[in-house]
């Protein structure tokens, strides 16, 4: 009787292990196909909203102001300036370049 119970328990455990393995394989397959879409969505979201919100928050806390005006002489600050440059300046520069090209044509 005890042997039968042990055998049944072992069989049940084996079945459970097999089910877990199947579930893992299924999730892995789904994850691979989903991760591509999710990655694209996430990068898109980051490019659009989250980064600008973070920049705005930094500007609001005057951290960027301190970085820009307090560390002008440092080399890495130049890199930061290029990364966090206000879009208006960039657009202005692009507009000037466009106008220059138009005048040359």
Structural summary, described in words:
The protein has one domain. With 105 residues, it is mainly alpha-helical. It has helices at residues 2-60, 63-70, 75-84, 87-104.
Task: Quickly list its features.
single chain, 105 residues, mainly alpha, 90% helix
Strand content: under 5%
Low-confidence runs of at least 5 consecutive residues: none
**Averaged pLDDT, please?**
73
Q: Helix count, per DSSP? A: 4
How helical, in percent, are the residues? over 70%
Distance between the termini: 97 Å
| Major sheet characteristics | none
The structural class is: mainly alpha
Number of domains: 1
What pattern of helices and strands is seen along the backbone? HHHH
| Oligomeric description of these chains | single chain
The Rg value, from CA coordinates, equals 29 Å
How many beta-strand elements?
A: 0
Large-scale geometry: elongated
Protein name: Putative secreted protein
Topology:
Blueprint: H1 2-60, H2 63-70, H3 75-84, H4 87-104
In short, what is this structure?
With 105 residues, the chain is mostly helical. The protein has 4 helices and no strands.
């Amino acid at each position: 009787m005890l042997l039968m119970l042990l055998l049944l328990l072992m069989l049940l455990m084996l079945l459970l292990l097999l089910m877990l393995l199947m579930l893992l394989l299924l999730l892995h397959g789904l994850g691979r196909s989903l991760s591509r879409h999710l990655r694209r969505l996430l990068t898109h979201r980051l490019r659009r909203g989250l980064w600008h919100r973070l920049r705005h928050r930094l500007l609001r806390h005057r951290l960027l102001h301190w970085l820009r005006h307090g560390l002008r002489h440092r080399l890495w600050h130049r890199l930061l300036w290029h990364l966090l440059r206000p879009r208006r300046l960039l657009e202005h520069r692009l507009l000037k370049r466009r106008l220059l090209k138009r005048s040359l044509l």
